[in-house]
Write a structure and sequence with these properties.
Structural class: alpha/beta
Largest sheet: 7 strands, mixed
Number of helices: 17
Distance between the termini: 50 Å
Shape: globular
Number of strands: 21
Helix content: 25-40%
Radius of gyration: 23 Å
Strand content: 15-25%
Strand order of the largest sheet: 8-7-17-18-19-16-20
Length: 518
C-alpha cells in the first residue's frame, strides 16, 4: 500500500498551507457540482474520485457506434432558480449565432404518455375527450365513485404507497394507470412499499391538481397565450410543458463541468474505485484502487480534511476502516436498491412509432416486462447518428444478479424486441442495431432497512468531516436538481453560510425544496 500526498504530488506540496484537502467521491451531478463550487470559492486542493471512465454518473450519455442514449431521460428543469441559472452558466441556449457543432441547450416540448390496453393515454392523466372515450363509460363511473370514496374516507395514516395513490386518485384510477408500472419499477406490490416514495416523486400531483391545470390551460388558450417561458414556476413539475435538454444528451453538460473542474485546478481520477475510508472520529484518508489494474493494482491512500461522498451509503459504510456502531452497520447493510437495464435499439422507421412525438412512454401493460420506452429522436434530433432511423431505449427494472441482469445480451435483446412487437409498436425485423446497458444501484429503494434510515443519518452527521450528497449518497430518490442542491447546500455549510450539516438532509424533504413550490 502506498500512502501519498495528493493526486499530483507537486500540486499538493505547493498548496499544503493554503487550504483544506477536499476529496469528492463520484463525478455525477452532485459530486461535480460540489467540486466546481469549492473551486469557485478558491479551494485549490480538490480531488474527485470516479469509478467509471466518464463523468455524469447516471446522467451520463452512453455512446454506441455514433448513437447517443440517455439513461432514463433527464429533463433539465427545476423550480430552483439557482439550479436553472447554474445549468445555463455551463451551456448556452441554442441560437442562430452559435455554431452547429457547439454544445447548447435546446428547448424541448414535453410529452409523455401511458400505454394501457394497447392505447395511449396522456400522462399525467387529463380529462380530454380522447381520454374519456378510451376509458369508456363504465370505467369512468367506477373512477368517479372510487375517487369520491377516497376523498370522503381517506386512509390515515398512509402506511403504504398504495394508500398514497388511492388517497389521491381513487382505487380504480390507481389500478388503471399506476399499479402495474410502479410494481415493475420496484419488484414489489405497492402495498408493501413505503408511502415515502410517493412523497418524493409524485408530491403535489393529484386529480385536483390535474383539474386545476386543465382549467388554467383552457384559460390560457382562450386568451391566446403561448408558453410564458421555461420557468413554469406555477406548474407542478409533472405537468410542465417545456424543458431544457443538452443537444448531445445530459452527459455533454457534465463532461463540460468536469473539464471546468480540471481547468480551475481540480483533479479527477477516472477508473478509480474507493476501497476504504480511514476513520477515527473523522475521515483521515480515502483509499483508492485503479479499476483497470485487476487484483494486482496497488492501493493508494489520499489524506483528507473534508470528504463529500455521493457513493451508495451501503458501500460507504462498508468501506469505513474504524469502529462503526452495530446498529449503523445493520441499517447500512439492509438498504435496498433497484437496478436498471436499457436496450438501445436502432430501428427502421416504424409506421406506428414514426408519428409519435413522445419523449417517453410508460408501459402499463401487465403482459410484458418492459417498463418504459424512450424515443431519443424526440429528446434531441442530434442523438441518432442517422436521422432516418429511430433510436429507442427499452427500459427494464431488475435486481443485480437476477435472471434479467445475468441474461446473455443477445437473449435480452431478442426478448425486448419481441415485447416491442407484442405491444404493436414495431416488428422484430425492423431492428437494425441493438446493445444493452446495465446500471447498478440506479434507484435507492424505500424498503429494506429504510424505515430506520434516521439511525444512519444521525451517525453520518456525527462524522465531522463527512458530507453525503446526491441520490445514492443520501439514499433518496432525488431528481438531478435535488442532487445538485444537496451539493450546493453542503458547500454553503462548509463556507459558513448559515447552513447546518443536518439541514442538507432536508433538501427534497422540506417545503422550500419541494418541486411544487417556488
Amino acid at each position: 500500500m502506498a500512502f501519498i500526498g495528493w493526486g499530483k504530488e507537486e500540486l499538493f506540496l505547493m498548496s499544503l498551507d493554503t487550504g483544506k484537502r477536499y476529496i469528492v467521491i463520484g463525478a455525477g451531478p452532485a459530486g461535480l457540482t460540489a467540486a466546481k463550487s469549492l473551486l469557485a470559492l478558491g479551494c485549490t486542493n480538490v480531488l474527485v474520485i470516479e469509478q467509471e471512465n466518464v463523468a455524469g454518473g447516471i446522467s451520463k450519455t452512453v455512446r454506441h457506434n455514433g448513437n447517443r442514449i440517455d439513461l432514463g431521460g433527464h429533463r433539465f428543469f427545476s423550480k430552483s432558480d439557482e439550479v436553472m441559472q447554474w445549468w445555463q452558466s455551463v451551456l448556452p441556449m441554442e441560437s442562430a449565432e452559435i455554431g452547429q457543432d457547439e454544445e447548447t441547450f435546446l428547448v424541448r416540448h414535453r410529452l409523455s404518455r401511458i400505454l394501457y390496453e394497447r392505447k395511449f393515454f396522456a400522462y399525467p392523466v387529463t380529462l380530454s375527450m380522447d381520454t374519456l372515450a378510451k376509458l369508456g363509460f363504465v370505467r369512468l363511473v367506477k373512477i368517479a365513485i372510487s375517487y369520491a370514496l377516497a376523498r370522503l374516507h381517506p386512509v390515515r395514516p398512509e402506511k403504504s404507497l398504495e394508500d398514497f395513490f388511492v388517497n389521491r386518485f381513487g382505487r380504480e384510477l390507481y389500478q388503471t394507470f399506476f399499479r402495474d408500472y410502479t410494481q415493475k419499477v420496484w419488484g414489489l406490490p405497492c402495498s408493501e412499499l413505503s408511502a415515502d416514495w410517493g412523497a418524493q416523486r409524485v408530491k403535489g400531483l393529484s386529480v385536483t391538481a390535474v383539474l386545476a391545470h386543465a382549467i388554467k390551460s383552457i384559460g390560457k388558450s382562450l386568451r391566446g397565450r403561448s408558453k410564458s417561458g421555461i420557468a413554469q414556476k406555477d406548474v407542478e413539475t409533472s405537468l410542465i410543458e417545456y424543458f431544457l435538454y443538452p443537444k448531445h444528451g445530459p452527459g455533454s453538460l457534465w463532461e463540460t463541468v468536469a473539464h471546468d473542474v480540471e481547468r480551475m485546478g481540480g483533479t479527477i481520477l477516472y477508473k478509480t474505485k474507493v476501497t476504504g475510508l480511514e476513520y477515527a472520529d473523522r475521515i483521515t484518508g480515502v483509499a483508492v484502487t485503479p479499476t483497470a489494474g485487476g487484483k494486482s493494482a496497488e492501493e493508494t491512500v489520499y489524506p483528507a480534511d473534508v470528504v463529500i461522498s455521493s457513493m451508495p451509503l451501503q458501500e460507504l459504510v462498508a468501506d469505513v476502516r474504524g469502529s462503526v456502531p452495530k446498529d449503523v452497520l445493520h441499517v447500512a447493510r439492509g438498504l435496498a436498491y433497484r437496478d436498471f437495464m436499457t436496450v438501445g435499439l436502432v430501428l427502421r422507421t416504424s409506421e406506428r412509432l414514426a408519428d409519435l412525438k413522445d419523449n417517453w412512454i410508460y408501459v402499463q401493460e401487465p403482459d410484458v416486462h418492459m417498463g418504459r420506452i424512450q424515443i431519443f429522436n424526440n429528446w434531441s434530433p442530434y442523438l441518432a447518428k442517422d436521422r432516418q432511423t429511430l433510436l429507442l431505449g427499452l427500459e427494464y427494472f431488475c435486481s443485480e444478479g437476477d435472471r434479467f441482469w445475468t441474461m446473455d445480451d443477445r437473449d435480452f435483446i431478442a426478448m425486448a424486441a419481441g415485447e416491442l412487437e407484442k405491444i404493436g409498436l414495431a416488428r422484430k425485423e425492423d431492428v437494425l442495431e441493438a446493445f444493452v446497458v446495465r446500471v447498478p444501484k440506479a434507484y435507492p429503494a424505500y424498503f429494506g432497512s429504510y424505515e430506520n434510515i434516521g439511525v444512519l443519518q444521525k451517525w453520518l452527521n456525527s462524522v465531522r468531516n463527512l458530507y453525503p450528497v446526491g441520490r445514492n449518497g443520501m439514499h433518496r430518490y432525488n431528481n438531478m436538481d435535488h442532487s445538485m442542491l444537496s451539493a450546493l447546500r453542503t458547500v454553503d455549510c462548509l463556507a459558513g453560510k448559515g447552513v447546518a450539516k443536518n439541514d442538507v438532509w432536508q433538501v427534497n424533504a422540506e417545503k422550500e425544496y419541494h418541486e411544487e413550490k417556488g
